[in-house]
Design a protein that fits this description.
Elements (H helix, E strand, L loop, with lengths): L1 E3 L4 H18 L2 H4 L1 H15 L3 E3 L5 H21 L5 H13 L3 E6 L7 H21 L3 E5 L10 H17 L4 E3 L7 H15 L4 E6 L5 H11 L3 E4 L14 H18 L4 E3 L3 H13 L8 E5 L4 H9 L3 E8 L4 H10 L1 H11 L3
Parallel strand pairs: 3-4, 3-10, 4-5, 5-6, 6-7, 7-8, 8-9, 9-10
Antiparallel strand pairs: 1-2
Length: 353
């Protein structure tokens, strides 16, 4: 058996940073006890210097360290990813559907620069639509245009997108075009506009990030088209010239855009785990007499399931984004940096037993 010891080094360093900053003062005794184990594991990484190590005959201490290293991806995936393929993810989707929670399946990955891989991703997306159709799951799909060749050629990506949307329209399914970093914002919106003109809001939608300065114009422009818009805070690290940096300002922008979408679009999607924003949407829609079934709350798999259940019990529409696949590292890096609670969970499970 072999183990690539450099796989999760960056994540471990970040976890140690959060642990050292918060556990001594705010963490539980159990969380504080994780610090020496985490330090030891990182020092083992440095000792191994990113090498691939053959596990045959060496000290039990090093063997235990490698087991911890190898266990980290599993613990991460167990919390936030439904499986490595559709077959393993489908039962998780079914469980959510039984709770009256709809799902959007999201194949992990991004930034493909090889046509063969982009073609393979297109086939995977198409197979995913077929699988959802055949199993009768209440699920749409989310796609990244960089996985369909946006970095290769705009026309090539356009053609791949339209091939996928042909299948979705034929099967009466929905495809959400995810928003990536600001290098891709304009090209993503341009391709969405082309797709929306051909397929309409019943087949294709887009995501807008509240923290971007440009969203002040993008929101009303896309709302005027009748676009199906998913509003989120924003998941990428962007400079101050392009995006708001402070959470109070981001929340204010989110509320402003949410109000516009609720007033000017047919069925807006409110994506947030932030209690302040969730409660604000509930209060605003009650004040404006907007029915609970005229918009949707959205959350991520592995987070706030009890909140999802509560919202459903109160009569709200709820959808959970369910990632699956093997390309988990970039996804988890963003998730861990967004919420320190997720770091505590990973640390607790990594060093358990």
């Amino acid at each position: 058996m072999h183990c690539d010891t450099s796989l999760c080094y960056g994540l471990l360093q970040y976890m140690l940073h959060v642990t050292m900053a918060h556990a001594p003062h705010h963490g539980t005794i159990r969380q504080r006890m994780l610090i020496p184990g985490l330090v030891f594991t990182i020092h083992a990484y440095k000792f191994l210097n990113g090498k691939t190590v053959k596990i045959d005959n060496f000290s039990p201490l090093l063997y235990i360290t490698l087991l911890l290293i190898m266990k980290l991806p599993f613990n991460l995936a167990k919390r936030f990813v439904a499986g490595e393929d559709f077959v393993s993810a489908a039962p998780k989707v079914s469980e959510l559907n039984e709770l009256d929670i709809k799902v959007t399946l999201d194949l992990l990955g991004e930034n493909v620069r090889d046509r063969k891989q982009a073609d393979s991703n297109l086939q995977h997306y198409t197979d995913l639509l077929d699988g959802i159709h055949e199993t009768g799951l209440e699920s749409s799909i989310s796609i990244k245009l960089t996985m369909l060749g946006l970095d290769i050629d705009n026309t090539y990506c356009h053609d791949n997108l339209f091939r996928l949307l042909d299948v979705a329209r034929k099967q009466n399914q929905f495809v959400r075009i995810d928003m990536e970093g600001t290098d891709y914002t304009q090209s993503t919106i341009d391709l969405f506009r082309d797709a929306h003109a051909e397929y309409g809001s019943s087949t294709v939608g887009i995501v807008i990030q509240a923290y971007l300065h440009r969203s002040v114009q993008d929101i009303p422009d896309l709302a005027a088209l009748g676009a199906d818009i998913r509003l989120c805070k924003g998941a990428y690290s962007e400079p101050a010239k392009l995006a708001l940096q402070q959470m109070p300002a981001i929340r204010d922008a989110y509320k402003k855009f949410a109000a516009h979408l609720l007033e000017h679009t047919a069925f807006p999607r409110m994506a947030s785990h932030d209690d302040e924003l969730i409660n604000w949407v509930k209060e605003y829609t009650t004040e404006k007499n907007i029915p609970k079934d005229r918009f949707e709350f959205q959350m991520l798999y592995g987070l706030r399931l009890n909140t999802c259940r509560e919202l459903v019990s109160e009569g709200y529409r709820v959808r959970v984004y369910v990632p699956y696949g093997t390309e988990w590292l970039p996804y988890f890096t963003r998730r861990l940096r967004e919420r320190k609670e997720n770091v505590w969970f990973v640390l607790s499970t990594m060093f358990k037993n």
